[in-house]
From TrEMBL:
Transmembrane regions listed in the UniProt entry: none
A single MF term (Gene Ontology): L-methionine-(R)-S-oxide reductase activity
Domain of life: Bacteria
Name of protein: Free methionine-(R)-sulfoxide reductase
Family matches, as Gene3D superfamilies: 3.30.450.40
């Protein structure tokens, strides 16, 4: 039923296709957890040079591990701690070229050198974060972060009905 797709080499075209795929994959599934899991798998196939991709859900003032692909990860992260917790505390995307230079970085995978964390919001409130790690310093670029932010805004309606 599914097979790995060769994406266009043009990054903008590739992200447009990714967005179309994500909507088609998620729009008919009413369970948000299933949608987070499938979105994670889709991103894991789409993104090059990453060693971890997944979600953390905001529950009772801490982030709790959700669906992911990669090595086992930290299960809970305090708000304001590490890149993920800082993204929630500051309510903004964090694009870190060298995680070892980031004060308070939480090293779940020693191979990670760069990180991109994007808050997922509902009615302006953070409900989760997308966390992506790479073994390559400087891996994540601003245009890529913006494309992933647009993708998350587009699929937000399919990510809301999760038990807390």
């Amino acid at each position: 039923m599914f097979s790995k797709l060769d994406y266009p080499t043009d990054q903008e075209a590739a992200y447009r296709l990714l967005e179309q795929q994500a909507v088609a994959l998620l729009e008919d599934e009413p369970d948000a957890l299933a949608n987070y899991a499938n979105l994670c798998a889709l991103l894991g196939q789409f993104l090059d040079d990453i060693n971890w991709v997944g979600f953390y859900f905001l529950k009772e003032n801490e982030l709790v591990l959700g669906p992911f692909q990669g090595l086992p990860a930290c299960t809970r992260i305090a708000i304001g701690k590490g890149v993920c917790g800082t993204a929630v505390a500051e309510n903004k995307t964090m694009r870190i070229d060298d995680v070892h230079a980031f004060p308070g970085h939480i090293a779940c995978d020693a191979a990670s050198n760069a990180e991109l964390v994007i808050p997922i919001r509902h009615e302006h409130n953070v409900i989760a974060v997308l966390d992506i790690d790479s073994p390559s310093k400087g891996r994540f670029h601003e245009k890529e972060a913006e494309a992933l932010e647009r993708l998350l805004k587009r699929v937000e309606p399919f990510l809301l009905n999760i038990d807390k």
